[in-house]
Amino acid sequence: MIPLMKNTFLEEEKTKKALADFIINSNRLSMGETCETFESAFSAYQKRKHSILFNSGGSANLAMLQALKNLGRLKSGDKIGFSALTWSTNVMPIIQMGLVPIAIDCTLETLNVSSKILAQVHEKHHLQGVFLTNVLGFLGDLKNIQDYCNKQGIVLLEDNCESLGSSLPEGKSGNFSSAASFSFFVAHHMSTIEGGMACTDDDDLAEMLKIVRANGWDRNLTTSEQTKWRTKFGIKSEFQAKYTFYDLGYNFRPTEITGFLGLTQLQYLDANVKTRLANYLKLDEVIKQNDDIIHLDHSHMTCLSSFAVPIICKTPELKATYVKIFTDAGVELRPVIAGNMQKQPFYAKYATILGDLNVVDFIHECGFYFGNYPELSNDDLVVLMSCLKKR
């Protein structure tokens, strides 16, 4: 069996022992200094000014939209474009915030939205925001998308949960937007079991994300930020401030365990990305020789931080053939994320605008993926390469 993932953590034994020691010796496990230390370390790694740690990447997605609404940059009824090839927690927050979701098709070569496709959708629907998913480590022309959104006054967000470590000549994925989310769920590039991050260079947005994360109060803000909010609303004492709630929020706080695991796993991240890329390139050489499978383009990228290996067959019949080959060889498979999001039951219930998604439909019918991670052995890679050979 070659499962979708093998271990919970990078350097599993070391991490579990270190975690046990941390729990035994800690006086506090609710969110505190360790989380703040991880936030600072992640900001340094990602090269963004602010990182705000959450209990999941999905929570970070919801918090980013709530924060933008709290700040008045988005409002109920605004149309928000999103990558149709995505995960549910990229789309559900749009609906939950009273915004209108508009699905955007992707290019077959990169699995991602392009600036050209985005422009076509914007001309038709007049978007107020765009929530892109950087798909499975692959990237679109993010710099062109960023420039287009800036020119059109569109709020741009990135869901970078599957692409931590990927980069273009212009910079790292997750750095082209007002804010970006990251996931540290098990089987992602680094694991804190559950956990996620929102990154931004915007001081006001970072401040509001902290308010949204913790019930709408100011307890995790700096002293000067607290003074600003308390003065604005006439809060005259520390006692009163403890239970004052300034805007809409949730309890999305992580624990110190999340912070500790994040710090521990971050030190292994670069080696992890390097191994994942090496695995992918070996498999990609076989894919190139098989004209049953569409070859994906990452030539415009400076680093492909491979999350998994997507296989897009040229017909549904070929997909069925290769799914059987992989399954018979003991390889665990998944659809390419959630396929066409418009086909999901919840979307049909709540969404009112449906678009033509020809490429995403094709991927939905003809695609699947298998796992890629550092623990894949040479024997595993031999099995996977054998499955990828043309029949």
General description of the model:
With 391 residues, the chain is an alpha/beta fold. The protein folds into two domains: 12-266, 3-Layer(aba) Sandwich (Aspartate Aminotransferase, domain 2), CATH 3.40.640; 269-388, Aspartate Aminotransferase, domain 1, CATH 3.90.1150. It is 43% helix and 13% strand. The chain has 15 helices and twelve strands. The chain has helices at residues 12-25, 33-46, 57-70, 88-96, 115-125, 142-152, 203-213, 223-232, 238-241, 256-266, 269-288, 316-328, 345-350, 358-366, 378-388, and strands spanning 50-54, 79-83, 100-104, 129-133, 155-159, 167-168, 171-172, 179-183, 196-200, 308-312, 333-334, 367-371.
Gross morphology is globular
- Please estimate the helix content: 40-55%
Strand content: 5-15%
Helix count equals 15
- Sheet with the most strands: spatial strand order: 1-9-8-5-4-2-3
CATH superfamily of the largest domain: Type I PLP-dependent aspartate aminotransferase-like (Major domain)
CATH class of the largest domain: Alpha Beta
How many distinct domains? 2
Mean pLDDT across all amino acids: 97
Instruction: Give the H and E element order.
Output: HHEHEHEHEHEEEEEHHHHHEHEHHEH
Unreliably modeled segments: none
The radius of gyration over CA amounts to 21 Å
Tally the beta strands: 12
CATH architecture of the largest domain: 3-Layer(aba) Sandwich
Largest sheet, in brief, is:
7 strands, mixed
CATH overall fold name of the largest domain: Aspartate Aminotransferase, domain 2
